[in-house]
Amino acid sequence: MQHNLIINGKEIAITARRISDENIFIKTGQKEIEAKILYAADNELILAIDGKKYRCFISASRDKIYITLDGINYKLRVNEPDEDYNSGNAHGGDEEIKSPIPGKVVKVCVSEGAKIKAGDLLMIVEAMKMENNIYAPFDLYVENIFVHEGESVNTEKVLIKTKPISTE
């Protein structure tokens, strides 16, 4: 089945189908991948792709899916046909950034009121001795920071409230 996803603000067409209970076929553009599911839990997935293991942490909000893969965060959203992501402000109103995994905040890299560019490091959350960098998904202003270094967080905890920078 083909899906049009918005991944960190970029639209990508992905075809995915389950081959068996353990195997998934994924195609994006000309690239084809077969992944084997080695482990699946509530918010954790371990995949084998071309003999290499990948650990993913997954969380979801009402309309977005957050995936952390090799310490890099991805924000996914299914592009509904009636939504226009190419006009005006593609990010709508305020955005709440949550932790993609349960863990401990080891570093807050921004301050309230700061103007941040897409891809800038916002915060680092550590889980099981693995650091997960949380990057800005788009150009934004930091409105509020709700956590401090050393604080334990779960996937429901809002870390930062942001406001998109106007594209006008």
TrEMBL record:
SUPFAM superfamilies: Single hybrid motif (SSF51230). InterPro entries: Biotin_BS (IPR001882), Biotin_Carboxyl_Carrier/Decarb (IPR050709), Biotin_lipoyl (IPR000089), Single_hybrid_motif (IPR011053). Pfam families: Biotin_lipoyl (PF00364). It comes from the Bacteria. Residues 94-163 form the Lipoyl-binding domain. Gene3D superfamilies: 2.40.50.100. Keywords: Biotin. PANTHER family: OXALOACETATE DECARBOXYLASE ALPHA CHAIN. This is Acetyl-CoA carboxylase biotin carboxyl carrier protein subunit. It comes from Melioribacter roseus (strain DSM 23840 / JCM 17771 / VKM B-2668 / P3M-2). The lineage of its organism: Bacteria, Pseudomonadati, Ignavibacteriota, Ignavibacteria, Ignavibacteriales.
